[in-house]
Amino acid sequence: MGAQKYVYFFGAGKADGNAKMKELLGGKGANLAEMTSIGLPVPAGFTITTEVCTEYYKNGRKYPAALDAEVKTNLAAVEKLMGKKFGDPSNPLLVSVRSGARASMPGMMDTILNLGLNDTTVKGIIAQSGDERFAYDAYRRFVQMYSDVVMGMDKEALEHLLERKKEARGVHLDTDLTAADWKELVVAFKAKVKETLGADFPEDPEEQLWGAIGAVFGSWMNQRAITYRKLNSIPAEWGTAVNVQSMVFGNMGNDCATGVAFTRDPSTGENYFYGEYLVNAQGEDVVAGIRTPQPINKAKQKAGDLPAMEDVLPECYLQLCNIRDILERHYKDMQDIEFTIEKGVLYMLQCRSGKRTAKAAIKIAVDMVKEGLIDEKTAVLRVAPSQLDQLLHPSLDPKAKKEIIAKGLPASPGAASGEVVFTADEAEAAAKLGNKVILVRVETSPEDIHGMHAAQGILTARGGMTSHAAVVARGMGKCCVAGCGDIKVDYAGHKLVAKNGVVVKKGDVITLDGSTGEVMLGAVPTVAAEVSGDFATLMGWVDKFRRMKVRANADTPHDAKTARDFGAEGIGLCRTEHMFFEANRIAAVREMILSEDIEGRRKALLKILPMQKGDFKGLFREMKGLPVTIRLLDPPLHEFLPQEEKDIKALAETMGVPAETLRHKVEFLHEFNPMLGHRGCRLGVTFPEIYDMQVQAIMEAACELVKDEGFQIVPEIMIPLVAVTKELGIMRANAVAVCEEVMAKYGVKIEYLIGTMIELPRAAITADSIATEADFFSFGTNDLTQTTFGLSRDDAGKFLPFYVENGILDDDPFVTLDQNGVGCLVKMGCEKGRQTKAGIKLGICGEHGGDPASVMFCDKVGLDYVSCSPFRVPIARLAAAHASLGA
Ligand code: PEP
Ligand code: MG
Question: What is the pLDDT of residues 610-647, one digit of tens each?
Fold first, then answer.
């Protein structure tokens, strides 16, 4: 085996790496290599691998011994290609040093530009460029960036010197400062650095280079990066690569420019070259939102826009369009690119698969199949299940009255209302209290990530469609209106003032429409999402590839309809207790619970029976013959009981008993630990008449529909909270007796199933025995999580967030299935159940049935179906397809 290679070269059509080497070279490095190899104009450079980062941290921040020599060799190769020399007084090479992890982490880590400048080489740059002002501007930018990122200098101190300079010169804009001003500022900056840090600003380019490399590796562990990784489940072990690349300048005059573009519209997915650029600017200016960039093409120009790149630099524009086609054909996906034009020559600085909204992801995937670029399987895998959430969420009701106070850029679609806050910390604090907020900033920066995460929507006064706010919001699937010049943000006054004079104070409610860019006063009502067009096409493919069925948890015909519209293939859980709470029946339910004897209970149950039958008929009708699993009564009885004195009195009157007796009965039914108390099948065992009534209602409903309306129905009767086989045995025998009796009465024979929930560890452990009495198992992972962890579902909120924030748990186990613990019980339950009955039907109906990672797990252990809330049905369908396709 040869020695390990730490540095990969790219330049002039040849590269050591390629796009498949993202783990080693990071996304940026791998794609720079790939673009170089396919002949695109990429400034030469080299990538230091992510392995160096990993070793650096493993060995107490020391580099591998061989790195130094490899960097030297590769730097020499870059010098040769560029015909320049690093540190050369007359013909100096300048480089950029940038991070690049396996997954893109926009703005999270450090970048240094113009590295290699010092008092000597700046003269060489003046000689090369013939532009003294440009050279000193580049130099001062370098000193600012380097002293901040590498040396830890406070940025503000140097900004302050710059502001004072402008005051002294009586100018407002940086662009009004002269070469001499910049030259003086470089001296002043360095003096300030020395004064503050007690260290000289390094003159030696090699020292600068190693300082920058160290800073980039160091930034992997900065707080922003750590937070971002946590939010995006990126492991710290991946490490970052470092890219050292020859500088090209977009700010050497009006034949220079810099820009970013998406090969298709990242917001809508439209097949339209979507980009923004700035003439005479350096790369970071576009992303930072300091100047508002202009569209690259004319097609969608609006009145008041500055000239498009298509007009200003037509040849470069055509070349860029050509590169767009090459990239899409090569990568077969929408790309996000960065480019710079130096004196009329176009260079590519980055390409990567572009972040996009769910809507765009679907449109692009479907279009690319039509264009023959990808197949249907690839299209399905291109859309992340969790992303669909955005689409299934409401948009503004078109009929609603809107008081529009401002308009900005439609940066990330969807609609959101909330109280205005002006800092990320306020947003986070408010969200913790359960308040909905809109985060309003002049512009956002990576420091605001936690607040953006907590907010319902984001509004910025500055920045374009590719500004930090826009890019990050789109990635999060959050509604965002960016670059809203119609508002003035007054942080000190805790308010914003719209152009039309409306003042919105902190705490006032506004609504954003991320699809139009409108900002409205108050909360505007919303309407449900529509699921048709490309969405329906994609979901059609999804259904071709998935093995698992997807059902919904639904208790009412209305929910059942929503579920079917979203593609549910049955009901996996109807919680009958929800039906008991309706105003016209709660009295009868209470009467039943509080009766002293079986006669009293039967009398009350007879009142409930017709209503339950009606409920089930509604559900069966709505589901049109698809399977419906109905769970018999589950919660502790005291949940139904009256607590207020006046309710107790009223009920006592109806029942004809003294209020005092009733009060005692209510007290008697109180439980210390109701979740572990007299609930589930324990009710059925002790009060069989309750379950008998429910089974009767189910079967009568089914028989009537079969007999009178020609339905085909196979009711699935589900017994909750079974711990021992005998419980289920008794419940089954009772249910069978009722079913047979009802069928005899109607003179019809229908198939029915009797099964159980597996939601207690004991049930999972003894599933082989329990299966002798069950036609199906449905894993109730809510209770199973609660009982496996010994963690109350209702009280966990007090400390669980702390556990997740501090990494004691990776995820909230009530959201994402704890595969190592609870998952083991699910797996065991499946295996043992199948040992006894090979064909036993297996499903899940806990909340996890709609969580993509949990759905993948369910596929692995071989469940037949997952069941989740109606709005998550498409997410579960897509996740099930991803599982089948081995994602
Ligand atoms: C469960 O426990 O997972 C379940 C679906 O039942 P419930 O949430 O109603 O207790
Ligand atoms: Mg349960």
Answer: 999 999 999 999 999 999 999 999 988 877 888 788 88
Residue 7's H or E segment, with its range, is: strand 7-11
> Is 739 a residue of the active site?
no
Mean confidence (pLDDT) of the chain: 92
Identify which ligand lies nearest to the alpha carbon of 814. Answer: 1
Distance 573 CA to ligand 1 centre (A): 9
231 and 275 inside one domain: no
Judge whether 481 and 415 are in contact, CB under 8 Å.
no
- Do 60 and 194 share a structural domain? yes
CA of 844 to the centre of ligand 1 (A): 10
Looking at the CA of 631, which ligand is closest? 1
CA 434/CA 390 separation, integer angstroms:
20
Q: How far is the CA of 764 from the centre of ligand 2 (A)?
A: 14
Catalytic residue among 393, 468, 638, 848: 468
**131 is a domain residue:** yes
398 and 317 together in one domain: no
Tell me which of 256, 316, 480, 845 is the catalytic residue: 845
The response to whether residue 759 sits with its C-beta less than 6 Å from ligand 1 reads yes
Report which ligand 1 atom has the smallest distance to the Cα of 759.
2
Q: What pLDDT, on the 0 to 100 scale, is given for residue 852?
A: 96
User: Do 219 and 282 share a structural domain?
Assistant: no
Per-residue pLDDT, 325:
97
Q: Would you call 468 a catalytic residue per the annotation?
A: yes
Query: Which of 494, 527, 560 represents a domain boundary (last residue)?
Result: 527
Residue given tokens 């982490």 in the structure block: 105
Contacts of 858 (CB under 8 A, 6+ apart): 548, 826, 844, 848, 849, 866, 883
**Has residue 47 been placed in a domain?**
yes
Q: Which residue(s) pair with 440 in the sheet?
A: 459
**96 close to 146: Cβ distance less than 8 angstroms:** no
Using the mean position of ligand 2's atoms as its centre, give its distance from the Cα of residue 257 in Å: 61
Highest mean pLDDT among 175-189, 219-233, 472-486: 175-189
Q: Are residues 238 and 111 in the same domain?
A: yes
Over the stretch 811-831, which tens digit does the pLDDT of each residue have? 889 889 999 999 999 999 999
Nearest CA to ligand 1 atom 10: 783
Asked whether residue 345 carries a pLDDT value surpassing 50, the answer given is: yes
Q: Is residue 311 in a domain?
A: yes
Residues 304-325: pLDDT tens digits? 778 899 999 999 999 999 999 9
- Residue 112 sits in a domain of what CATH number? 3.30.1490.20
Give the helix/strand (H/E) hosting 71: helix 67-82
Q: What pLDDT score was predicted for residue 73?
A: 97
Following DSSP, what letter does each residue of 769-830 receive, concatenated? HHGGG-SEEEE-HHHHHHHHHT--TTTGGGTHHHHHHTTSSSS-TTTS--TTTHHHHHHHHH
Q: Which of 845, 848, 854 to mutate to test the pocket of ligand 1 (most atoms within 8 A of CB)?
A: 845
Note the pLDDT of residue 794: 72
For residue 498 the two structure tokens come to 């719209």
Number of domains in the chain: 4
Containing structural domain, residue 520: 393-527
Q: What is the pLDDT of residue 357?
A: 87
CATH of the domain at 342: 3.30.470.20
> Which has more confidence, 96 or 359?
96
Any idea which of 450-454, 569-573, 651-655 has the lowest mean pLDDT? 651-655
574 lines ligand 1 (CB under 6 A): no
- State residue 106's pLDDT score: 73
For residues 192 and 272, membership in a common domain is answered with no
Same domain, 77 and 196: yes
Residue 370 banded pLDDT, cuts 50, 70, 90: very high
pLDDT digits (tens, 9 = 90+) for 710-744: 999 999 999 999 999 999 999 999 999 999 999 99
Element housing 705 (H / E): helix 688-709
Within-domain flag for 31: yes
**What is the amino acid identity at position 223?**
Q
> Which among 616, 586, 595 is positioned nearest to 695, based on CA atoms?
616
Assess whether 429 and 477 both reside in one domain: yes
